[in-house]
Write the structure tokens for this entry.
Amino acid sequence: MKPYDIHVFVCMNRRDPSDPRGCCAEKGSEALRDYFKKAVKARGVPGRVRVNQAGCLDQCEFGPSVVIYPAGIWYTVRTTEEVDAIIEEHLLGGKPVERLRLGAR
């Protein structure tokens, strides 16, 4: 099998509920990861793009956090509409979605 061109890592970290930064899992990253996987497959690019869960990306206060390699682009993703924007504009269109980049909000 040919290696993937793009890897999408979705933080699935769980922190203690008392941690002031919260965690990506509490903010819905599991459902977003599942949606990301289905949406990539539905668009016919699963052999080119791989969506994986990640351990702590250490950006939970901004989460749910997503990083895309090899570009090294970091996003805060909160909705399925934002996932769709990243797939359409970045993964398929080649242009990062500036409004969703981590720290842009």
User: Anything to note?
Assistant: The first strand starts at residue 6 and ends at 11. The mean pLDDT is 91. The chain has one domain: 6-95. The two ends are 39 Å apart (CA to CA).
